Amino acid sequence: MASKLLQLQSKACQATKFVTQHGTTYYKQLLEQNKQYIQEPPTVETCNLLAKQLLYTRLASIPGRRDAFWKEVDYVKNLWKNRQDLKVEDAGIAALFGLECFAWFCAGEIVGRGFTFTGYYV
After folding, report:
1. pLDDT digits (tens, 9 = 90+) for 7-51
2. What's 50-70 look like in SS3?
3. Which cellular compartments is it found in (predicted)?
4. Would you say 40 and 47 are in contact if contact means Cβ atoms under 8 Å apart?
5. Residues contacting residue 39 through CB under 8 Å, at least 6 positions apart
6. Per residue, what are the HEC states of the chain?
7. Are residues 39 and 46 in contact, defined by beta-carbon separation less than 8 angstroms?
C-alpha cells in the first residue's frame, strides 16, 4: 500500500511539473483560439450582465419549447389513434426508447445508492 502511495505521489509531482511548464502556453493558446467568444472588457460586471442575459434568454425560450413539446404530444396521440397503421420499425424505435429510459433510471438508482446493487451497505 505504501508503494502505491509513493507511485501516486510521484505521478502527481510529474503532473504538477508538466502543468507548471506548459500550463501558461496552453492557457494563452486556448484564449487565442476562442477569442471570438470573449466579451470585452472582461470584467465582473460584464460577466454579471452575460449571466442575466443567459437567464432571461432561457426564460424567454420556454414558450417556444412548450409549444414544441405539445406538438410532440399531439404527434404521439395521433400515432396511438392510428396504431393499426403503425409500422414495425416505429414500434421498435418506441420500444428501444422506452428500454433506454428504463436503463437510465436503473443506472441512476444504482448510482444514487452508492453503486450497490442490493441497496444495503455492507
Report:
1. 888 898 988 888 888 888 989 999 999 999 998 888 999 999 999
2. HHHHHHHHHHHCHHHHHHHHH
3. Mitochondrion membrane
4. no
5. 46, 50
6. CHHHHHHHHHHHHHHHHHHHHHHHHHHHHHHHHCHHHCCCCCCHHHHHHHHHHHHHHHHHCHHHHHHHHHHHHHHHHHHHHCHHHCCHHHHHHHHHHHHHHHHHHHHHHHHHCCCCCCCCCC
7. yes
**Amino acid identity for residue 12 in this structure:** A
Residue with cell 494563452: 28
The amino acid sitting at 30 is L
Query: What are the grid coordinates assigned to 109, written together?
Result: 438508482
69: cell is: 413539446
